Amino acid sequence: MGGGGFSSFRFNSQDFPCSGKQINTQLSSPNAEVISTLSAGDVLNIRLLGGKSILVAMAGTEVAGVIVNKEMLKIIECIKKGFAFQAIVRSIFSGRCAITIRPT
User: Fold this and answer.
1) What's the number of domains the chain is made of?
2) In this structure, are residues 95 and 30 in contact, taking their beta carbons and an 8 Å threshold?
3) How far apart are CA 32 and CA 26, in angstroms?
4) Partner residues linked to 97 by β-bridges
5) For labeling, which of 3, 46, 97, 100 is most exposed (least CB within 10 Å)?
6) Alpha helices, DSSP H only, in the chain?
7) 3 within some domain
8) Which pLDDT score is estimated for 8?
9) Please, what are the averages of pLDDT over each run of 10 residues along the chain (104 residues)?
10) Which residues contact 25 (CB under 8 A, 6 or more apart)?
11) In what order do the strands lie in the sheet with 85-93?
12) Distance of CA 76 to CAs 11, 34, 44, 98, Å?
């Protein structure tokens, strides 16, 4: 038996409803070229990159940044179950992009 990691994760939709929950976070590894074109209020689509477990915010066809948050695995499970999410840009300052993730 190994230690730690994500292997012990158990998804429970009662703990995290796939609809109706909002999460405030920042984009990790923001793409400066894409972020420079965004403004507060812009809508980004949340996607799984290549169908894997990398959660990204998309501005059109471009990756705006990666989402790393304590709720990330739960959002991934919801997406795999067919739920869709979007991110609303709250603010952009010094290359940082604050977003609110919510179901569509």
Assistant:
1) 1
2) yes
3) 14
4) 92
5) 3
6) 32-35, 72-80
7) no
8) 37
9) 41 62 92 95 93 88 93 88 94 94 93
10) 67, 69, 98, 99, 101
11) 23-26, 96-103, 85-93, 43-48, 55-59, 62-66
12) 10, 23, 16, 20
Q: Considering the domain boundaries, does residue 62 fall inside one?
A: yes
Does residue 10 fall inside a structural domain? no
The C-alpha atoms of residue 86 and residue 47 are separated, in whole angstroms, by 9
Beta bridge partners of 45: 58, 86
Q: Could you give the CA distance from residue 86 to residue 21 in angstroms, rounded to a whole number?
A: 12
CA angle (87, 89, 92) in 5-degree steps: 145
CA distance 5 to 13: 21
CA distance 64 to 32: 8
